[in-house]
Amino acid sequence: MITRAPDDAESLAVGALDWLMKAARDLDDGVAWPNTLADGQVRPRLYDGSSGVLPTLLDAWRYFADDRYADMALRGARGVAVAVEDWEDSGLYTGVAGMAVALRGVHRVLGDTASGAAADRALDVLRARYDGAGWNDWFELIAGNAGIALAALECGDVDLALLAVDRYAPAAEPTAAGVRWEVGADSIPRMHHMSHGTLGIVYALAAVGRAAGRSDLVDLAVAGAADVVSRNEAGPDGFLVGHSDPQQRHERVERHNYGWCHGPAGDAQAFRLLSQVLPDDPGWPALVDRCWHTVVGSGLPRRIRPGFWDNNGRCCGTAGVLALACDRWVERGDGRDFADVLVADLAARATADGGGVRWSNVEHRDTPSELAPATGWGMGSAGIIRELLRHARISTTRDPRYALPLPDHPPTTAPRRLRPGNR
Questions:
Q1: Spatial separation of the C-alpha atoms in residues 50 and 103, rounded to whole Å
Q2: Which residues on neighbouring strands pair with residue 174, listed in sequence order?
Q3: How far apart are CA 183 and CA 410, in angstroms?
Q4: Partner of 9 for a Cys bridge, out of 47, 219, 392, 399, CB 3.0 to 4.6 A?
């Protein structure tokens, strides 16, 4: 029997955690999560596999002080650890680099030395796969060398991060306003945003440049950001840049998006990082404000037409916008109302029954268009739960930080005052 989902962030997260815990599949050593219960395929990676569930379980353990979540995180880490040597992809969201981040996080938060040793093995695998230029032909953040740089940095290996960004200066393409990069070798469209485009590379260069004291990398990041800024189509008060140029698959892909992956909700995260790396330049906070202005005025989360905004997830849906709204709430004090709207929308679009709470996305180009509920970070419940728990923490003046920060999301710089005794 379908019931009405709870409408507050904490209760909604509890129901979704119930569903997520039940979705775990037992392995010989540990547990793993299928992308959907329908396909049953388990993957260890961060985007849509077990590594992406682990940060959510750590946040749940911190929030509720319930050892069920810690125990499940440890079992999940065992499942990821056994896959480290055999998983062929190396990327942040697609491969071993992201597995290293998740395992290192379990080690840091729960003190689990086995997870720490597995994270070390994952870094060893990455070092062994380095071919003198990188790990693959991709420059972007999701699967490419930019994401691997961020993973290495998050795991404390600055030297490995520097290897990962070494190729970007000679590969930069000069433009009228700055520089840009291919998504991957011989790819024709140039993308501009966080997931596959210039701003994801900008983020990695700025982060590694700051950590290594390399001003040349920061300067290269600024040049990349300048190219994207020059493409703004929203006027002086907003910020909206096309998906790609020339437009990739124009018959299937919207020119303008608003989420983390290809829109201002993600662009703002790159500009937030640059404002932290270059705090004396007022232009970066101004760009964050312009991204926020466009997101809030876009009409989201209203469904304008099928396929335009039918994703609830963290990568390219409502939860990714909620992440930015909570950043604004903490840093600028102006994100609460919109964050509440987003939580209400997630509640209205959830499916709730005796099995718990979960979400289905829509792909209007496929038949049937309603997709099976997914478990993972990018398009599934894990990514949504994580942002709901953060909203709940901030609502009760708890620490806004994630238990395990992901390396492409800057920490907030002006945390709210915490109540004494809050965990």
A1: 11
A2: 179
A3: 23
A4: 392
